[in-house]
Amino acid sequence: MTETTSGPARGSRAKGGSKGNKGLRIERVHTTPGVHPYDEVTWERRDVVMTNWRDGSINFEQRGVEFPDFWSVNAVNIVTSKYFRGAVGTPQRENSLKQLIDRVVKTYRSAGEENGYFASSEDAEIFEHELAYAVLHQIFAFNSPVWFNVGTKQPQQVSACFILSVDDSMESILDWYKEEGMIFKGGSGAGLNLSRIRSSKELLSSGGNASGPVSFMRGADASAGTIKSGGATRRAAKMVVLDVDHPDVEAFIDTKVKEEEKIRALRDAGFDMDLGGDDITSVQYQNANNSVRVNDEFMKAVESGSKFGLRSRMTGEVLEEVDAKALFRKMAEAAHACADPGIQYDDIINHWHTSPESGRITASNPCSEYMHLDNSSCNLASLNLMKFLRDDDEGNQSFDAERFAKVTELVITAMDISICFADFPTQKIGDTTRAFRQLGIGYANLGALLMATGHAYDSDGGRALAGAITSLMTGTSYKRSAEIAGVVGPYEGYARNADAHNRVMKQHSDANGAATRMDDLDTPVWAAATEAWQDVLRLGKKNGFRNAQASVLAPTGTIGLMMDCDTTGVEPDLALVKFKKLVGGGSMQIVNNTVPKALKRLGYQPEQVEAVVEHIAEHGNVVDAPGLKPEHYEVFDCAMGERSISPMGHVRMMAAAQPFLSGAISKTVNMPASSTVEDVEEIYLQGWRLGTKALAVYVENSKVGQPLSAKAKEEEKAAEPEKVVEYRPVRRRLPKGRPGITTSFTVGGAEGYMTANSYPDDGLGEVFLKMSKQGSTLAGMMDAFSIAVSVGLQYGVPLETYVSKFTNMRFEPAGMTDDSDVRMAQSIVDYIFRRLALDFLPFETRSALGIHSAAERQRHLETGSYEASDEEFDADGLAQSAPKAERSSDSPKADTEDTRRSAVEPEAAAPAPKEAHNSTELLEMQLGLNADAPLCFSCGTKMRRAGSCYVCEGCGSTSGCS
Known about the structure:
- The chain is an alpha/beta fold.
- It folds into three domains: 2-158 and 378-560, no CATH class; 165-358, Anaerobic Ribonucleotide-triphosphate Reductase Large Chain (Alpha-Beta Barrel), CATH 3.20.70; 740-904, no CATH class.
- The chain contains 29 helices and 28 strands.
- The strands form ten sheets. Strands 5, 6, 7, 8, 9, 12, 13, 16 and 20 form a nine-stranded mixed sheet that branches. A three-stranded antiparallel sheet has the order 22-23-24. Strands 1-2 form a two-stranded antiparallel ribbon.
- α7 links the parallel β8 (238-243) and β9 (289-294).
- α24 packs antiparallel against α25 (828-840).
- The relative contact order is 0.10.
């Protein structure tokens, strides 16, 4: 895409400037001379209104925002709510994607010109247009801090990943608390290694025993939790690492296990221990991911069953010898019980370290993909792999390696430019990052790409294609880094580390040459990667490198949603059926768009493809799909579901990509609930043998702190009839003759009538409201509102959903009513749905919504319980059988209403059908399994896993890097 040239330099040189007047020539890839990328797409205005599904409150609203017509509702919502700057409702607020892109891209262009990156102003303009095009068409995205901060008046922080350090002194420990807090305040996360802190088995200079790192973890955890609850919309993301030879390693391993036992005990005692619950804050160590850093010596001792020494932090002498296999078993038991600690392989990490003369790599960021020097940071960007899959006129597929390499060059150039103007949370981090210029280019949508090309995720062909793409991306990035070094000079730390850096480049190149080529898709990509690595070795020796690190595989949470990616990072697809938001509101369930592409690649005819897609829509999987060969089932295996990918399938994919990455991979190996401790041990052993840098596992249902506990879900499942997910809702009309209740009411002096008609055997199906004179605006609006609610009820929307959305809504008229059960109402609709809840919902359901009758409230005052005695309930204890004689006798409806209601109330109310709000909840409904994901702190929707973090499909919030 580019070349260096001797031409007039623009602006000042970056530190370590170039020899002569060189600059980068930028080639057009997607854009046309004389035509701006914005002029090549169709723009439209949309309204963004995001609500909390739990109570119907509006989380965010901005109307009339401008986006291309091909952007999805979800992408528009997330970019508008997360990335547009300026106060909502003011002229300063951004209202168009053009403004967002211009704010960032023009800043990058300006910094590039000022620091001498471009050969001419024409090249700078091409750079700007190509970068704008790639963002506009969702080909790539920078990490979230870029969109938050670049081009604004606030500090222009561009990095999402940070590594801190702490020494064995109280001053350093207190600095750790402060530095970590400042990073959390900005919405980012950090990791560090505590192994320099002396253990609780060592003495202080004063003669007393040291506290040990575990005790100091408690204070840092409390700080993280406080900063998170003080206004952030996501949990503080942090990583804590301890070396396996630290004398306190067993206490470190036990920290979360003991807290998990505490959670279970408190839950069983009746405390609210679900994620986000009132009582979960009493539990410690919940704001960090923990990892043990193991070395080859320890892993070989585990294999041989020999002893392993735990060493003093001050002298290095062995304080205690332990059975390596027993300690390894303890790690596996803890991870099996509560998902912590993860494992990091120290010797493998440092074997690929480009800057060892400047210090070892001791820790990682919270998601484990960024691993480099202490007190450093990394800015991320991710490429959307599906944008490079092309079909020719004959229907054959190929991966566009040439265009992929050109876009990689463009993006890595922009990422390096950003360090020229970036701000950092601490002076030490700023100094290290400017000296080593660590970058983290990566990709998303690998799982979708593999499925679309007919590759099983857990297959040799799938791994070969993933490895080839990763190798091409990193090779091209280092090639570009060497070219930039020829223009503005190598990174400051390069001279000291030149031999090591070039050795690591040779290791990458050798791994590329030794990789297995499998088919017509990966072979051309490997060839392009081989050429790139040859250029790396040649140019690196000549120019050095501009960046100590180039690539990682991050979670791509929020930015993955921005690019409309089906899968995040290196992850496989979650499920074959997805949840899609629609323009104008509402949502629908669709079969993945990649499924038809995969079937076409596998040679199926259009009518066969249609039959398989219909089968998936109905069953959620491909098992027994008509005409689908069993040997092709594996292509459609997903992270969860009927045919889920085996844990080792995830590890093998990580191992396929790892040799071609500067950093590591953010990924959790999901394991079924049936997994044993031995299974976890095997995963950790194989991760080391296969050369991965870090691993974390999660055994389904292993944690109590979930949106619903496993026990509660099992009880709910046992109580409910088997659910059938209907992908096309069917309207169930009421019969000609239907039981009903007519209620007169007054709210704040406004009079009205409500008629509620029911199905003979199954609850409310129709509501009519009459207020004011016929033909008036209010009467018309109430008629329209009644029809909308009635149609929704007949299509299966649960009444409790309407109740949760409309109760507590405030507007006039409001005030006193003539209903003894609802004495005050904040609006007409508040009264209507409280009355409907009392008339048609079972006690447990409306009690959870805080809606009780006058008699129930009186009973609560007298007995401390809203529930009636056994004699006042029917046999099932779900619906009151006694007439509601508690109503005021002067109520206009008291004389006839009780008789009508007793005719329509079912003997036992069935639980309302579960409602899905995203793909994770849809999958739970289909399969009856627990996704074990937390609820989003912003909007309450269940999140889904993205790497080793979580992302909310509703609002884009993440629990870690993005």
